[in-house]
């Protein structure tokens, strides 16, 4: 029998991406029958999650912090071996991680957090374009690689970036079509991702 407390827990699990009500119910039942230490450890980690992880203040990637007042700078932005003149713009942290797995990027990143999508009410004013422009100018970026997904929203975002960045006189390139149209970068294999970066073209 599903109690009111278990319904609340199921509804919270179901709010996670890709988790439906049935999967959420399976998670609940598993935790109820698993060892007590598993649920306790999971609870502790969830409580501490927001205390030690924050979006990087420079790029939006995940950054680990020591104290709640620490400045959140990710390992990529703080890596002196990275090429500061090369900046890759992605829609989500998932995409950044996929590119990193492929080992195709020697520069740094900027996470938009969302794509231009009029149907979902996301307009140009909802994207962090001003922060992107400021970072490009501050770090003397010479090339911006637009690595948004090859979808309708991804292409619209790429065109917006082309319009906004054109006055800066920098090189603006787009990853090649090795990534399938309509697909997510998150699911692209390393070889496909590597070819997409190697074959990037000017926008």
Explain this structure to me?
The protein is of the alpha/beta class. It folds into two domains: 4-49, RecR Domain 1 (Helicase, Ruva Protein, domain 3, Orthogonal Bundle), CATH 1.10.8.420; 86-202, Dna Topoisomerase Vi A Subunit, Chain: A, domain 2 (3-Layer(aba) Sandwich), CATH 3.40.1360.10. 41% of the residues lie in helices and 12% in strands. It is built from seven helices and seven strands; from the N terminus they run αααβββαβαβαβαβ. The protein has helices spanning 4-13, 21-33, 36-52, 93-102, 129-138, 152-165, 190-198, and strands at residues 53-55, 62-64, 86-90, 108-111, 143-146, 171-174, 201-202. The strands form two sheets. Strands 4-3-5-6-7 form a five-stranded mixed β-sheet. The protein has a two-stranded antiparallel ribbon with strand order 1-2. β1 (53-55) and β2 (62-64) form a beta hairpin. The mean pLDDT is 87. Residues 85-180 form the Toprim domain. It comes from Pendulispora brunnea.
Secondary-structure blueprint:
Layout: H1 4-13, H2 21-33, H3 36-52, E1 53-55, E2 62-64, E3 86-90, H4 93-102, E4 108-111, H5 129-138, E5 143-146, H6 152-165, E6 171-174, H7 190-198, E7 201-202
CATH topology of the largest domain: Dna Topoisomerase Vi A Subunit, Chain: A, domain 2
- Extract low-pLDDT stretches: none
Which architecture name of the largest domain does CATH use? Answer: 3-Layer(aba) Sandwich
**Main beta-sheet strand count, sense and barrel state:** 5 strands, mixed
- Beta content comes to 5-15%
CATH class of the largest domain: Alpha Beta
Structural class: alpha/beta
SSE sequence, one letter per element: HHHEEEHEHEHEHE
Helix content: 40-55%
Query: Roughly how many Å is the radius of gyration?
Result: 20 Å
Number of separate helices: 7
Integer average pLDDT: 87
Number of individual domains: 2
Find the count of extended strands (DSSP E, 2+ residues): 7
Describe the oligomeric state of these chains in a short phrase: single chain
Strand order of the largest sheet: 4-3-5-6-7
Family: Belongs to the RecR family.
Domain Toprim: 85-180
Function: May play a role in DNA repair. It seems to be involved in an RecBC-independent recombinational process of DNA repair. It may act with RecF and RecO.
Protein name: Recombination protein RecR
């Amino acid at each position: 029998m599903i109690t009111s407390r278990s319904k609340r827990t199921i509804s919270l699990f179901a709010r996670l991406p890709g988790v439906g009500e049935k999967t959420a119910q399976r998670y609940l039942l598993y935790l109820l029958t698993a060892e007590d230490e598993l649920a306790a450890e999971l609870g502790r980690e969830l409580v501490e999650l927001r205390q030690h992880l924050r979006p990087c203040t420079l790029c939006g990637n995940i950054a680990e912090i020591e104290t709640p007042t620490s400045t959140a700078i990710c390992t990529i932005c703080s890596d002196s071996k990275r090429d500061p003149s090369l900046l890759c713009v992605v829609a989500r942290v998932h995409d950044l991680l996929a590119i990193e797995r492929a080992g195709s990027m020697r520069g740094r990143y900027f996470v938009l957090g969302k794509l231009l999508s009029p149907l979902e009410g996301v307009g140009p004013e909802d994207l962090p374009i001003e922060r992107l422009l400021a970072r490009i100018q501050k770090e003397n970026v010479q090339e911006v690689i637009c690595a948004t997904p090859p979808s309708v929203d991804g292409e619209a975002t790429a065109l917006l970036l082309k319009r906004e960045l054109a006055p800066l006189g920098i090189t603006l390139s787009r990853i090649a079509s090795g990534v399938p149209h309509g697909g997510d970068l998150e699911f692209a294999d390393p070889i496909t991702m590597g070819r997409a970066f190697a074959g990037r073209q000017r926008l």
